[in-house]
Task: inverse folding
């Protein structure tokens, strides 16, 4: 699953591929916002992304899309 995190004053968004379900990520975001501290998400390789909640602009939760390579007929 792909999670895009917008950070205030950052030109680019953070993109994390996570093995967690959308419900689990939503719960992590809600808990972080309620606590007012940090949002911590673990990616598929076990790396942690930690963002201070006061710097969050948005969090987009989406299913991972596979990109086609080459020429395809649609």
Result:
């Amino acid at each position: 699953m792909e999670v895009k995190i917008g950070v205030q004053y950052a030109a680019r968004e953070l993109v994390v591929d996570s093995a967690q379900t959308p419900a689990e990520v939503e719960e992590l975001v809600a808990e972080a916002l309620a606590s007012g501290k940090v949002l911590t998400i673990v990616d598929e390789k076990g790396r942690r992304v930690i963002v201070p909640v006061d710097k969050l602009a948005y969090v987009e939760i989406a299913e991972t899309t596979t990109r086609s390579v080459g020429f395809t007929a649609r």
Summary: The first strand starts at residue 2 and ends at 7.
